[in-house]
Amino acid sequence: MGLRRILLLGEGNFSFAASLCGAAGTHVVATCYESEEVINIRPLFLSFAIAGAEVVFSVDCTKLKDYFLAGKREFDCIYFNFPHCGRKAGVVKNRELLAHFFHSSAEVLAEEGEIHVALCNGQGGTPADQPRREWHNSWQIVAVAAGAGFILSDVHPFKAETIHGYKCTGYRSQDKSFCVEGALNHVFTRSTPLLCLTPMSCRIQLESQNISFQVPQVLVDKINRGFLAPNSNHPVRTVKEKLTAGLSQAFPLQSTDSCLSLLHQSHLHGVCPSRVFWITLSPEETPSTEEMSHGLANAVLFSRVDFCQDTDKNVQEGRHSPKQFCLRPSLLPHARAIIQEGAFLPGTLHVLSGPVFRKCRITPHSLPVFHEMLIVFAVNRGTESSCIQMLVNNIKTTIHSLHQTGINPNVSLQEATSSETTELNDFAAFESQLSKTQYFICTDMDPPGSCVGILRTSHELISSELVVVFASLNLDLLAMLLCGISDWRMLWTWDTRFLQQFPRGELRLFKSFSLYPPSYVHDVSFWVPHGEPFDEVAFHTIARGVSGEMVISIQLRDAFQQPGTGRSSLCYRLTFQSCDRALSCREAAEMQLRFREEIHQHLGVTLR
């Protein structure tokens, strides 16, 4: 392994550089903005030379690639302690300095390198500053860094007293020290680039025929991810494995995963058609053996767009096609099909699992796609209550055994009422539409009353003596609760730093690698088509698709009805924020413009 190359910028008296020289396995390049004539560090040159360090004068931190040859540009770590434009420069000037610095650093930093920026207390503008300045009066370091593709991965106190020989100088460009009490060191790393969500199609085998369909834009990066695959170390799979192992100790168990179709034909009773992803199928040529080998339930992705774009609109207007299908919003129809086909064994737990897809409003715990674990078993009539309690106790015991994370949620069984359904999350509300729900499986974690499972019974499917019990668990919400993941989008990140925290078969407390991400607020006002109800779920779904799940909140700010004409106007506030990638102010503004175009085209609104 080669030397760790460290670049120091803006050194004043080179005392910080001197403290690093001689460290094993490192090569230090110390620079300053001033010329050699201005800075007298000759007493330090001997120690630098002995340690093998370099000193470079007159280095502009905004043009770093100009000072290093192509083969010597990849630094593993860049330090910039207490940057400042000099004298009485205000926050705007210093933001500009940081912006140019981060863009310049991107050209000389190794792919997995780090940038360390030390700032005085309050300057950064993050919640780590105590006290915290108002955002407009800070250097807004996370937003500035995001513009160059960096995320804040760590922040900790800058302890000058622990750095041997270090003395801070340069107050207002003078040879004076300044207060570093409460100073913070901000550590930045490269972000994965924003995804380019190009249209994509999926080819599957359905009833011995090869067909294809266009993947809804909001799901392009979520189809065929393989979280439940045998070789996966994703926490969603680990939760499923732990639950299955716990159930198998108390019940005979049969598991069904890979043979379940992604599609469901016709409408689901009780479910609003606007809550599912409708698609139109097209006949396709036979896929190659190689293509089929990479599929999920025989699904293959490819970039080709030649299918119906107006499926959702057709459904809303009541124009149904005999080839109308939707992406499965639940595994419940699959379970009922197994029972009706006679493949169901009374007394045995049948476990089905896989991703399901639903349109929903944007909230921290509303998931347009998640992994459902559906447990089905038959019991003698009159014993269903005790069997349900036994099942819930087994689930509770298994969840409590997964306390390696330090998080031990209390699991409870709540009897369902219509009022509770509206107070619980979107998962509970949708499940209650599918069929009558008797019980919710809830936790005491944030938000309070989070529903992670549903229990329902059916008296009609097998015989008059047997009752079928269905238990649906949201594996994604369980993984979030057990691993301390506050944002569901993190489960779907492409950043490898997420899965690196979860060894195969282990659940650990998640540590975010993107701290205090910047957020950007944009408003949109429009007239809704006269006489037509406004589809708010479709509005949220368009925001998800256009932004690549970068919209974290949509709030209705104002509703207005024009006297005389009766026309209605709505004003919504959108908040853009990424949980795992760098999102710049410019990128958020571009997303807002595309969103305005999309709602005008697909919802028929007139922008104001």
TrEMBL record:
InterPro entries: aa-tRNA-synth_II/BPL/LPL, BMT5-like, Fdx_antiC-bd, Fdx_antiC-bd_sf. It is an enzyme of class 6 (ligase). GO terms for biological process: rRNA base methylation; translation. Keywords: Aminoacyl-tRNA synthetase, ATP-binding, Ligase, Mitochondrion, Nucleotide-binding, Protein biosynthesis, Transit peptide. Its EC number is 6.1.1.20. It catalyses: tRNA(Phe) + L-phenylalanine + ATP = L-phenylalanyl-tRNA(Phe) + AMP + diphosphate + H(+). Residues 515-608 form the FDX-ACB domain. GO terms for molecular function: ATP binding; phenylalanine-tRNA ligase activity; rRNA (uridine-N3-)-methyltransferase activity. Pfam families: BMT5-like, FDX-ACB. Its main location: mitochondrion. Coiled coil: none annotated. It is found in: Mitochondrion matrix. Gene3D superfamilies: Bira Bifunctional Protein, Domain 2, Ferrodoxin-fold anticodon-binding domain. GO terms for cellular component: mitochondrial matrix. Belongs to the class-II aminoacyl-tRNA synthetase family. This is phenylalanine--tRNA ligase. The lineage of its organism: Eukaryota, Metazoa, Chordata, Craniata, Vertebrata.
